[in-house]
């Protein structure tokens, strides 16, 4: 059985049985069981009562709150409550001899419950009926519907190349037209100055081979130094502009995701594991902050 985070994939009956099992493993002296049999069907309730209350807890002090009067015969003391008031107290035989009609109280509480159960059963899908007929572990229609409604949805993952619209959205999130233009201009200038310095160095070398006595070393050094300094400045400015754009993109995208999360319905937190949501703000954000800028800049420089 898929448990899911915080028992998200469990039905009401499965949660009740799991909570009861955890209480039994604790091995306490006193047990207060708040109607653990209401979330399961009659057959399972009888099995739980026999194995748990009658056999396992026979030497323990057990206080059982229940609407099922068929289990009252084994109780040493019965307290009948109606609208928060004590109606009668005593053993099953004493209550019966005192004229206490327990069936009347059960009919008062079972009426609305049965109507709700019928209403809920109308939304059961044919696939649930077929699974029940094939011997599924689900014990009643209410559990089948709860399992269906609380099933954890698989995370959507896309495989393949990233579309250009994604990169465009990333750039728009962190830079206006001016910053984009400046970054492109500085990148172009750095490439031009780099190629110019290499070309000038090759000319200087060829002149030194052909006519070493006529080469003006001072002039060549000044030109080459100017090109190198210009390359350093343009490359530095392009890096600064690019990383400013990436930093703004990261901050704006993070704020956008966070605002969307705050405005999300409560159902999102019930149907999505908390770890999946935290990954969007930790691992994925870390990739956008650290890995993406360096890889993108290296790609731009190489190409």
Automatic annotation (TrEMBL):
Subcellular location(s) per record: Membrane
Segments traversing the membrane: 178-201, 221-246
Keywords linked to the UniProt accession: ATP-binding, Membrane, Nucleotide-binding, Transmembrane, Transmembrane helix, Transport
UniProt keyword annotation of Cell division present: no
Entry's Gene Ontology molecular function annotations: ABC-type transporter activity; ATP binding; ATP hydrolysis activity
InterPro entries reported in the protein's UniProt record: ABC1_TM_dom, ABC1_TM_sf, ABC_transporter-like_ATP-bd, ABC_transporter_C-like, P-loop_NTPase
Protein family: Belongs to the ABC transporter superfamily. ABCC family. Conjugate transporter (TC 3.A.1.208) subfamily.
Name by which UniProt lists this protein: ABC transmembrane type-1 domain-containing protein
